[in-house]
Amino acid sequence: MDKLISTAPVPLKAVLVALINKDQPPSKAEEFLDELEFLAQTLGLEIKGKFSQRLPRPDTRSFVGKGKLEEINTFVKAEEIDVVIFDDDLTPSQLRNLENELKVKIYDRSLLILDIFLERAQTSQARTQVELARYEYLLPRLTRMWTHLERQRGGTGTRGGAGEKEIETDRRAIRDQITVLKKRLEKIEKQGITQRKARGQLVRVSLVGYTNVGKSTIMNKLSKSDVLAENKLFATVDSTVRKVVINDIPFLLSDTVGFIRKLPHALIESFKSTLDEVREADILLHVVDISHPSFEEHAKVVEATLKEIGADAKPVITVFNKIDLIPEEPQEETTDEFEIQEPVAPTPRERALALYTEKPDTKLIFISATSKGDISKLRETLYKEVLEHHISIYPNYLKNVNY
Ligand SMILES: Nc1nc2c(ncn2[C@@H]2O[C@H](COP(=O)(O)OP(=O)(O)OP(=O)(O)O)[C@@H](O)[C@H]2O)c(=O)[nH]1
Ligand SMILES: [Mg+2]
């Protein structure tokens, strides 16, 4: 059964397709396609072309309009493309229609993310969660191209694939596998609860944020550990917990999976227990990559996801990271009184502050995780917050400290 999970070499040549609605500027399409490209590259695909279309809503039959589909088809044939990736989720019937039309493998955003997670997951819990989410995704979408035999034969070369009977056999096998995985997950989750209880009463801090913002880098700097940090989306899929001590106060710091816009719902569901670290945390460090042009949107995606998993009422320190990549703040200039001032676009810092004007209590800090001084600054800020929680757990703590 394992063969249903792609073990075949990943197809190489891909094209990307995204939609924008009537209110979005053309630059949005570019941004969506760039993010999709980053995801696709994470899986090792080579992007040969990008297509976008402005539509009020996806075409129910083929996601894009007829003319656009023809344009894509011509390109697919000419460039011998192996896979077409759509930026949104496709309905099972859209998937079938597109496969029939384009005769290549069709990926949508969810499947792409699921495959990345599958490749990255290391602990048995994360693997089981992703496998489960992937089977649940595949079940209603099994087509001739997504069958056991076809995949076993090795991916994209074979067209036509298996017949209805074999698809039905696969469907049954997937249902059985889903049952097995759910049971396995329940067992792992029970162990997790026991493990977390055994950690005792330490203050717990969780790093959260959009993918690729620098969570693992900060984790490594704060805990002097060695978590994989790289310029790829979803470098971290499992959660890692480390004990950190600042000025004699121990606490637990956890690094976890990054969030992204349009995270497949099945994945959020299945990752809920990995996200227990976040849900059970006392303090959240929300890391934002201030050098990204759309960091405001990313911060909102994270806040919405926190709400969805029920972790939105915790004290948060918002860490604007990567300030080394944004232009330095302009020095105040003395200008001629009569000179007409051009309206200037707000700087990233001003935009960051503007995000939180309505929540003046939010703690904000601007750092570059690559700067030693900034990490000390973050350590100080975190220490104050942790101390408060530590005292609430150990009211006698201050009495024992010699000043
Ligand atoms: N220039 C610069 N790069 C940074 C900084 N912090 C992190 N990076 C880089 O950003 C990339 C992503 O960092 P990670 O720590 O892997 O990010 P993450 O949030 O853990 O990402 P995922 O686990 O994929 O969600 C890496 O290439 C880091 O070296 C920073 O302050 N400045
Ligand atoms: Mg990471």
Descriptive overview:
The structure is a single chain. This protein is 43% helix and 16% strand. The protein is α/β, with parallel strands linked by helices and 403 residues long. The chain has a 6-stranded mixed beta sheet with strand order 6-7-5-8-9-10, with helices on both faces. Helix 4 runs antiparallel to helix 5 (124-138), helix 5 (124-138) packs antiparallel against helix 7 and helix 5 packs antiparallel against helix 9 (265-271). The relative contact order is 0.09. The model is unreliable at 152-160 (pLDDT under 50). Bound molecules: guanosine-5'-triphosphate (GTP) and magnesium ion. Guanosine-5'-triphosphate (GTP) binds next to helix 8. This is GTPase HflX. Its main location: cytoplasm. Residues 203-390 form the Hflx-type G domain.
Name some characteristics of this structure.
403 residues; alpha/beta; Rossmann fold; 4-stranded parallel beta sheet; 10 strands; 43% helix; 16% strand; binds magnesium ion
Strand order of the largest sheet: 6-7-5-8-9-10
Shape: flat
Q: Judging by the overall fold, what is the CATH architecture of the largest domain? A: 3-Layer(aba) Sandwich
Question: What is the C-level CATH assignment of the largest domain?
Answer: Alpha Beta
Q: Quick one: CATH superfamily of the largest domain? A: P-loop containing nucleotide triphosphate hydrolases
Number of strands: 10
In this structure, how is the largest beta sheet organized? Answer: 6 strands, mixed
Helicity range: 40-55%
Strand content: 15-25%
What distance separates the N and C termini? 63 Å
> Count the helices. How many?
13
The helix-and-strand class reads alpha/beta
Q: Cofactors and ligands present?
A: guanosine-5'-triphosphate, magnesium ion
Poorly predicted regions are 152-160
Quaternary structure type: single chain
Query: How many domains?
Result: 2
Overall average pLDDT: 84
**In CATH terms, what is the fold-level topology of the largest domain?**
Rossmann fold
Q: What radius of gyration results from the CA coordinates?
A: 24 Å
What is the succession of H and E elements?
EHEHEHEHHHHEHEEHHEHEHEH
